[in-house]
Amino acid sequence: MVDLQYEVIVGLEIHVQLCTESKMFCACAVEFGAQANSRVCPVCMGMPGVLPVMNKKAFEYSVLAGLALNCEIPSFTKWDRKSYYYPDLPKNYQISQYDLPLAKDGFIEIPVLVDAREDTARMAVARGDAAGTKRIGIIRAHLEEDAGKNLHTAGNFSQVDLNRTGTPLLEIVTEPDLSSGAEARALAVELQRMVRYLGVSEGDMQKGQMRFEPNINLIITKDGKEYRTPIAEIKNLNSFRALEKSVEYEEHRQLDEFLETGRVLKMGSKTTRGWDDEREVTVLQREKEEAHDYRYFPEPDLVPVEMTDAWLDEIRGRLCELPLARQVRYVAEFKLSDYDAGVVTGERATADFFEAAVDAGGEPKRVCNLLTQVGLKLANEKGCGVDELSVTAESVAELAGMVGSGSVSAGAAATIFGAMGETTKEPAVLAEELNLIQKSDAGELAAIVAEVLAANPQAVEDVTAGSKKSKKARGFLLGQVMQKTKGQANPKVVSEILAGKLG
Fold first, then answer.
1. C-alpha dist (Å) from residue 43 to 27, 83, 147, 165
2. 266 with 120, same domain?
3. What is the mean pLDDT of the chain?
4. Local structure of residue 373 (DSSP, 8 states)
5. Is the domain of 454 the same as that of 427?
6. Which class for 294: exposed (0-12), middle (13-18), buried (19 or more C-beta within 10 A)?
7. Stated pTM of the model
8. Is 322 inside a domain boundary?
9. pLDDT digits 0-9 by tens, 109-148
10. What value does the CA radius of gyration of the chain take, rounded to a whole number of Å?
11. Are residues 389 and 473 in the same domain?
């Protein structure tokens, strides 16, 4: 019997388009969806004799991201030309960084997976300690210009749109510390949250603002001997699902290939593959280029960048509490579940709004429920953020207090929140206007309970007899009281009165 075990090794290259107003080396606007080839100039089209000028904001955004990734920021970095020939690269080279990147030797922490099933992956950070996270090394982060876009939908020919050419692109390269498709997905999700928190990128994958390229191979131990399969790089993945599924597919493909052919990693055995989303398979594209194939050499038209201590300190001052750290803190400080904390910290503006409502006196769990169950849905319908609704953090805190005191029910609070999104009126005013104030007067409710008990002797008998029907009968009687009061009775008070009368 063959003794075989294997380990999946995954490293990621992530391309993040920075949300600057202009391109990396020229003044052309960065604008998604504009008419093809309408946002171009002689510089980004690679015309003879033109000179590039560095976009300072793009460089600072990249350094800020590098700091958030716990990277070392060298005091000196330079630009290089990376030569290759594609229709969407008009200069036939890309201005990039090779041996002296602007950030290196960092790390990012990702949540440890509890349930890695497709589209239901949940992260465990409930304890708020190191046991809830895994550290993934960052080799480098460097800045470059993006290529254009090839279009293949017009007929039996291709078209090229150069609007994207020259857009600032931050490339982040991880150590091969990931061990599954689910972990690769978790890192991608966390990185998207991070760049959005920092405000350096919108991270919209549908617009091509984040693209992933995993490098995958296996370490196989067979009959006590170790083998490594050839590395496969999967190009230009633009969804979390495609990233996870492609890594999972490669895991099984490489294992099957090894068992069939015995092929192992050696010089020149790296391959580049594409992802067929419909068939959910990877497809061979070409043998992978090595660094020397790109003929890197220093960019002669751009001076190196020297980072001073004062400049670096100014950029470091823009750092904020990052989403995973905030999520862990919410679990520990506000006693939210890891799921609720993950939702409320999904966007920085939502988390800021949540904390403002808590600071205004709102009970954290109730504020969280109002935002996640009502606020986010309402904001999604309006195409805006929770903070952009006509609802203040103070009014949400007041509404949470009304639920806590029993003056309105949780269901009524949802209705009031919706009304708050359409008007500037306070929750107490809306509760009165909408007749949603909950009845908690014990004397008034006791009289209504007595009427219900008199009208339903069989249900009373089922409760007092303690039969199998007891629980259902008690719920029926509670429902009858709620019906008589048009849903305005405080269920807790009614339940206490029923318990007093029926035991």
1. 9, 17, 13, 10
2. yes
3. 88
4. I
5. no
6. middle
7. 0.84
8. no
9. 998 765 443 333 333 333 333 347 899 999 999 999 999 9
10. 30
11. no
